[in-house]
Amino acid sequence: MALYKFDEVLNDLMDYFILGDPDYLLQYKIENNLPDDLLTEFTTEETGDQVVEEGVMVPMIGIENYPYTVYFNLSDETSELLKQGNEVQHQRDGYCLKVVNGRIYLYTIPYLRDFTETKLGLLKKYKHATIELPNGWYSVAILAGLTKQLLKVETASGEIEEFESMEPTFEFVLKPTVEKPDFMADFTYPFKVEIRE
Hints:
The protein is of the alpha+beta class. It is built from four helices and nine strands. Strands 1-4-9-8-5 form a five-stranded mixed sheet, with no helix packed on it. It has a four-stranded antiparallel sheet with strand order 3-2-6-7. 30% of the residues are buried.
């Protein structure tokens, strides 16, 4: 399957999401003798820029505190957010990502405060948007906006009602590449999704 969907993905009340292979981040931390507190390290030193440019992780800022629908799109089909009836608000490419342990996760910034084997184990146990991917390099495009989703709600009488709703959405378009793609993204770009009331 080339399109993976996750519902109700939360940002842990922080305005950040991080996409990447956290095993590779731990390996990078150890190889480069970085402290356990990667959050302080990455926000006060140049290593923060380096991990992004070297494809260790893709950070996204300006994330509003909503439950998100998340798509990982590995197909050559039209992106979900570009399909009729959906509303793309952000479309950015130029990101690169390296996978070395066969899986990527969309996770949140609190994990970086004490990034150890134990914290990595917790990250893997918690329900995150995650998919298996063959090891190697990927170019990444990020789309954000609103997609039409069918929601199910239980009424007071216990019946299930279905209705359509425009839900905040992130879509990651991942394309395998033979070698490291050029990093050309602006990682200070805010991915704020506007909800229509």
